[in-house]
């Protein structure tokens, strides 16, 4: 087998492996699943970002963990082959790619696990690392009336893909990110071992893999906490002119006890203009809603702020009860009273809201164009400065898509995971979800992202890039800060030859096992 791998790798161009070599490779790996090369691997060399493309050696569609372990073991017997798990390829900067290496299509394993469990009266679901969150949602709600507690805004992402980062949305203030809502993982490590891990069993691997950027192992199964699924959601948007009032209200809501606040809290910045994508028209939740700019105070600046909240309820709740609960919460907030938009939607519809935007963008041809997105966690101590310069000046005309900003609580994140955060209990996620507008170029937008980060560094802001992307080890060291040593130790323990997730560009493949 090794001879076969060695010959294929040394003698052929990654995108032109002859078919008989592929079948030899497949046979020698002893896979239950399939292996593809040539043109078919095209998808494995691309991602949602559309900024990078590489040529993998082959795309493997494994049947399960054993196949994945076989591929990792085979790679480990060569001097330079790497292995990248590909969830749904929704990374921006090539993080799920393997140049000249094996890409494992995790989606082929999506059906392998789907098992509900009740442990000490609490509900869980065991799901595949390659399952899409949207499928987990639909199946859990329709079969058990239960649902995971913590989400991402968009659900065509895989369980393993978001758990390798964090998984953040408007529920994270209460339940923490998705990495705080799993209790057990099955992982194929970079040593090719299939290992079950949890807080009490192989805990270094468990916490290391959560937010571990795919560096320690490939998540093949996750045990996700569930809660009773509500039937309906009151979805509300309210508008502010002053950043200080917007942040004061958002922080008030995320620091209240359950039952004393909304179930979902997010927010975004938009341009104070009639631009259909970046301005007022982007705020109403329904075509029947009208955003009347006459209600915007004269004192308003170049941008406005929208607080987006939602309250769960049951079909059996009386409308007046829901109205009262919503009014009681809204009356404590200082938004522009006449700029309030609300809609009742089913819980599943609410969680799938970005899917609709995807369908529109696909119809307009925008979905498949490049997306130079930038996500940053910024501490409360730095957020006012960030708003003053970045939102109100640099990005005052928008980014061709949403500019999210909402507060999160550090205490809901487990510091034993590999995720890195800024200091302080309250920090904000800022997401610049750029679509390339006509008249601009990707290069220009990427340059603007760099400018934002450069400015943050120059001003000494307390921040960490989320879904990070760096080219040099020095930058990665700076990113991990005082967690770098722990991360390197974990890497050395679980992927000593740096076979996994080469697209993150953190460690270089080696054939010498580090001590
Ligand atoms: P991929 O892009 O395929 O992989 C990401 C990384 O994880 C790669 O390094 C890959 O090798 C590794 N990986 C993949 N699967 C596994 C596995 N099973 N085990 C170990 N490593 C693995 N993020 C949020 O937190 N909140 C949001 O609201 C949010 N919304 C988004 C909306 C859109 C439209 C998009 C495109 C992205 C969004 N993201 C959001 C970012 C998203 O969480 C990450 O890009 C995530 O990595 C994508 O998941 P994926 O399954 O496509 O992973």
Automatic annotation (TrEMBL):
Presence of keyword Oxidoreductase: yes
InterPro entries named in the record: Cytok_DH_C_sf, Cytokinin_DH_FAD/cytokin-bd, FAD-bd_PCMH, FAD-bd_PCMH-like_sf, FAD-bd_PCMH_sub1, FAD-bd_PCMH_sub2, FAD-linked_Oxase-like_C, FAD-linked_Oxidoreductases_BP
Keywords, sorted A to Z: FAD, Flavoprotein, Oxidoreductase
Gene Ontology molecular-function annotations: cytokinin dehydrogenase activity; FAD binding
Gene3D superfamilies: 3.30.465.10, FAD-linked oxidases, C-terminal domain, Uridine Diphospho-n-acetylenolpyruvylglucosamine Reductase, domain 2
Keyword Flavoprotein: yes
Cofactors demanded by this protein: FAD
Domain FAD-binding PCMH-type: 52-229
Signal peptide location: none
One Gene Ontology biological process: cytokinin metabolic process
Family matches, as PROSITE patterns: FAD_PCMH (PS51387)
EC main group: oxidoreductase
Reaction equations catalysed: N(6)-dimethylallyladenine + A + H2O = 3-methyl-2-butenal + adenine + AH2
Superkingdom as given in the UniProt entry: Eukaryota
EC number: 1.5.99.12
Family, as annotated: Belongs to the oxygen-dependent FAD-linked oxidoreductase family.
Record-given protein name: cytokinin dehydrogenase
Organism of provenance: Gossypium schwendimanii (Cotton)
């Amino acid at each position: 087998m090794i001879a076969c791998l060695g010959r294929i790798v040394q003698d052929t161009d990654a995108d032109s492996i002859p078919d008989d070599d592929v079948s030899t490779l497949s046979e020698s790996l002893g896979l239950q699943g399939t292996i593809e090369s040539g043109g078919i691997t095209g998808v494995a060399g691309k991602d949602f970002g559309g900024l990078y493309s590489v040529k993998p050696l082959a795309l493997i569609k494994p049947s399960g963990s054993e196949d994945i372990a076989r591929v990792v073991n085979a790679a480990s017997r060569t001097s330079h082959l790497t292995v990248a798990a590909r969830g749904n390829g929704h990374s921006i900067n090539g993080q799920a790619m393997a140049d000249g290496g094996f890409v494992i299509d995790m989606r082929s394993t999506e059906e392998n696990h789907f098992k509900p469990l009740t442990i000490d009266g609490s509900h869980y679901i065991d799901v595949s690392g390659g399952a899409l969150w949207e499928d987990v949602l639909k199946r859990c709600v329709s079969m058990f009336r239960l649902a995971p507690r913590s989400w991402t805004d968009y659900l065509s992402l895989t369980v393993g893909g978001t758990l390798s980062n964090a998984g953040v949305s408007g529920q994270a203030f209460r339940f923490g990110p998705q990495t705080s809502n799993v209790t057990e993982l099955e992982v194929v490590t970079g040593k090719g071992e299939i290992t079950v891990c949890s807080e009490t069993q192989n805990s270094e691997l468990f916490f290391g893999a959560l937010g571990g950027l795919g560096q320690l192992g490939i998540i093949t199964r996750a045990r996700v906490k569930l809660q009773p699924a509500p039937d309906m959601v009151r979805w509300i948007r309210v508008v502010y002119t002053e950043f200080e009032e917007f942040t004061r209200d958002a922080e008030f809501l995320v620091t209240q006890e359950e039952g004393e606040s909304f179930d979902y809290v997010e927010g975004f910045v938009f341009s104070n203009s009639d631009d259909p994508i970046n301005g007022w028209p982007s705020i109403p939740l329904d075509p029947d809603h009208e955003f009347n700019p006459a209600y915007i105070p004269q004192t308003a600046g170049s941008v406005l702020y929208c607080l987006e909240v939602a309250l769960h309820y049951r079909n059996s709740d009386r409308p007046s009860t829901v109205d009262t609960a919503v009014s009681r919460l809204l009356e404590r907030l200082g938004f522009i009273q006449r700029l309030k938009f609300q809609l009742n939607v089913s819980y599943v519809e609410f969680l799938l809201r970005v899917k609709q935007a995807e369908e529109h963008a696909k119809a307009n041809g925008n979905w498949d164009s490049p997306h130079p997105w930038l996500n940053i966690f910024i501490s409360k101590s730095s957020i006012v400065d960030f708003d003053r310069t970045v939102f109100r000046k640099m990005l005052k005309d928008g980014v061709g898509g949403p500019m999210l900003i909402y507060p999160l609580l550090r205490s809901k994140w487990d510091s034993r995971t590999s995720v890195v955060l800024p200091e302080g209990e309250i920090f904000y996620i800022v997401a610049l979800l750029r679509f390339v507008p006509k008249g601009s170029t990707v290069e220009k937008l990427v340059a603007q992202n760099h400018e934002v980060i450069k400015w943050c560094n120059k001003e000494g802001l307390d921040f960490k890039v989320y879904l990070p992307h760096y080219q040099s080890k020095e930058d990665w060291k700076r990113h991990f800060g005082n967690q770098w040593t722990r991360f390197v130790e974990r890497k050395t323990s679980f992927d000593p030859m740096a076979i996994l997730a080469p697209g993150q560009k953190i460690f270089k493949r080696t054939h010498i096992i580090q001590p």
